[in-house]
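Section: Multi-chain targets

For targets with more than one molecule, the full set of components is provided together so that the structure can be written out for the assembly as a whole rather than chain by chain. Components appear in the order listed by the source. The example entry contains two components.
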Amino acid sequence: MAAIKETRAQRVFQVFNYIFLTLFGLATFYPFWYVLVASFNQGRDFTRGGVYLWPRAFTLENYGMAFDDDRIFSSLGISVARTLIGVVLGLFFTALVAYAVSVKTLPGRTAFTFFFYFTTIFGGGMIPYYMLLRDLGLTKSFWLYVLPSIYSFFNFLLMRTNFDTIPNELRESAQLDGAGDVRILFQIYVPLSTPIIATLALFIGVGHWNDWFTAAYYQTDQDLWPAATLLQRLLSEATASSTIKVGQETNIATLQSYTSQSLQMAFVMLLTMPIVVVYPFLQKYYVKGVMVGSVKG
Amino acid sequence: MNNSAAVISLEKKSKRKEIWKRIKEHKILYLFLLPCIVSLLVFSYYPMYGATLAFKDYKYNLGIMGSPWVGFKHFEDFITSPEFWTVTRNTIVISGLKIIFGFPAPIILALLLNEVKCTKFKRAVQTMSYLPNFVSWVVVVTLMTVVFTPYGGIVNDIRKSMGLEAIFFMGEKNYFYPMVVLSDIWKNAGWGSIVYLSALSGVSQELYEAAIIDGAGRLKCTWHITLPGIKGTIGIMFIFAVGGILNAGFDQILLLQQPANNEISEILDTFTLKTGLNYGRFEYATAIGLFKSVFALVLMSLTNFISQKFMEVGIW
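Its structure, encoded as tokens over all components, is:
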């Protein structure tokens, strides 16, 4: 194709294509930048408007206030804890299941896969699920976030598809050498699958970090709210009071220069930063992972 | 006759023995599966049993099992209630808008990205476009609130500088659907394009070369080679989109919902949540949820059937 000389129309198309894609990229990225700038700008100064590209009145006060706020600080702790525990347990148990099903001589593996798959196309609904959580006592426990979501069919599928590419002969010869399944899984299969494990760690971690719904509707102990849920509450409180101008209800009595909005901006950035730091580095892995999942799924 | 029957039963016996032997050999693998089976039974299958509540009159002290049966009463109540049409209509309108505008977006994005020859530029745009997929809807809605607020938000600042009036985009009813569709595209188009890009990379380059020699232009190539080449992927994604039509993007809607737009924003899921958890009408809410699940399953099967018939792709 490169050998053929581009026509005028094609060149025009290319120019417009580059312009359009640049604008699209900016449109997805700019809102994050805007909020980042807002989070480093004095709150009251920001509400005057006109701060678009760079902080006008630079300050770290918003972040300081966010960390000083007990609720925000402890909610971030809950988020970190559930993300770490969720990723470790999710990977471990998914690996066990994927390994077992990837052994082609296992009787009942197809039946099991269907048993698992069926949960993705039909469910009992939110209310029976809530009643179950309540009866199990999970609605006032940290484990609400971790236990019910250890297994996901999509994650299982990704890991199994990957294990399927490892020849069964490898397992058989290891068995002849006297290795048990536990050793084969953790010393052969897992090291051979680091890309998919990195991808799944990202997906599971992001899922936990972002989940606001579970706690907002199923958690009765507000001290156990993760950061995403707390942010949602702050957001809806701000919306509810939007008649008195969001972000402008500065506390004049104490002459603070931050507003509830600027504090919120810092909070949003604390929730977004860990993701921004991690996801570009795993890009080449998860792009492949998504493709596998969509083809086989 | 007797003899052959005996042989068959003996064969069966030895076959059963063989399977039994294999099961024993794989003991530890079943141990690997056990926690998963228990977890699925508890967290997925038990709530399916719990959904029988939809046909009962729930008494707290009697539990789900002991409560008396009432047949289809709750379903009848829901279908004849004034909310039924509003909620169903809203769900389908929102999903429909998302399919019309949101479904082609990643395809178009993938086609455009595919034309880019500078790999660095392509990668940069892709990386940026994936970011919204990784953040929570809570963050997205917070960003929207800041960007669109009439009080110092950038969009309204621009409008004002152009002499236009500020608009309360997040609160006005007329802007609810545009905001839903726009934020849906913003969050999902980039990520959605991955699948199509990988399908595009599978389209044979020789076809293009042959077509160009035959004098086909770029548009003709797209229409006659590229699109047919990714037809299968489009078909499968479409089945999923239609299968999810009754979801309409639960947490997005829940977060964008406000009293001012409630009339056009209440969807099946948000309505279930409110009647169930806020008003405590467990059995009624369960019935609505079940109605939705069954209807969604039927829809999915139907599109799968049609797609298999006309496009020769399916998910089952």
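Chain A has one domain: 69-296.
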